[in-house]
Every structure is written in structure tokens, then in C-alpha cells.
């Protein structure tokens, strides 16, 4: 496979975001969003998915974190899509069941080109660190839409919100790593339509 790297920059009146992702990395990351807990989650996604990830986001945090989290999802999804190119020889599907202390989270991914998010969880707390927990769903929704990804996240068990959130991001990293990996049995794309 060629170098599968996506670099996307997006500038609006609310945010300035630059994301670079290498799908064939080692899990190195440099994340700066201005939201400490969000940085921590993206670092976990990068490390456990073995993606090299750079995120620099400047947003209107004096309002709240919504635009920063949502727009980071948009740009990361676009960068993943750019890195995948025509999706030749990838497995397309990925899934992972990740335990983290009391939390158990299932994540499944289909890189089908059709966006869909099934996010089955309501956090019992409003904030984890400096991140509004409602923004976790908003991030994954924006990412799934801009990447053209079918994404399911199911919390099977969990008490501690920090553990649940971290299990989500790590499970997503593991599932996406599986989905973007090469399968030598695949010629072209894995679809009866001939396109993804």
C-alpha cells in the first residue's frame, strides 16, 4: 500500500482546525484542542489504533467546547477519508469489544461510504474534566458523517463516565484499525457493487 496519510485544514468563524493522520503509523500523536480530556481521548484513539495523529484546533472555547469537538470530528473524518483514497484491498469492516475496568464497550465500523451513527449511551454526568459529555456523541456523529462511515458504539456495561468514554475512543481506534487494514484476498474494493 502507498503512504496512506490524510491532511485536512478547515477554517470557519468559530474554529481553525488542522488534522493529519497516517493510517499506517505506530500510535504517535500530537493533540492540542484546548480541551484536556478531549486531547486525552484522541491520544487513546491514536495509540490503540496505531495511527499517527496530529490535531491542532483553535475554537471559541469562551462560548463552550461544542464547535471545537464537532468540527474536529468533521476534519478527522475528512482526513481518514482522504487517507483511504479509493479503499482498494481494505477489509472494510472492523469491530472490537473493549473492557476498561467497569466499562465494556462494543464498536463496529463499516467503511461503506454511507454515513450512519448508532450511539447507544447517555452519560450519567454532565462533564468529564473540561469536556461536556454530550459532545462525545456530537464528535462521533460529525466524524461518521464526514468520513462516510457506518459506526456503531454500544456500551454493554459501565459505571464510571471516564472509563466509558475512554473505552469508546480506544474501541473505535481498534475497530478502525481492523477496517483499514489490508486483506490480500481482496482485489479492488470489498463490495458486490464494485465501489465503496
UniProtKB/TrEMBL annotation:
Gene3D superfamilies on file: Imidazole glycerol phosphate dehydratase, domain 1
Compartments where located: Cytoplasm
SUPFAM superfamilies, per database record: Ribosomal protein S5 domain 2-like (SSF54211)
GO MF terms, alphabetically ordered: imidazoleglycerol-phosphate dehydratase activity
Class of the enzyme per the UniProt entry, highest EC level: lyase
Species per Swiss-Prot/TrEMBL record: Candidatus Eisenbergiella merdigallinarum
Protein name: Imidazoleglycerol-phosphate dehydratase
Protein keywords: Amino-acid biosynthesis, Cytoplasm, Histidine biosynthesis, Lyase
E.C. numbers: 4.2.1.19
UniProt cross-references to InterPro entries, sorted A to Z: IGPD_sf, ImidazoleglycerolP_deHydtase, ImidazoleglycerP_deHydtase_CS, Ribosomal_Su5_D2-typ_SF
Keyword Transmembrane helix: no
GO biological process, any: L-histidine biosynthetic process
Signal peptide: none
The protein's annotated pathway: Amino-acid biosynthesis; L-histidine biosynthesis; L-histidine from 5-phospho-alpha-D-ribose 1-diphosphate: step 6/9
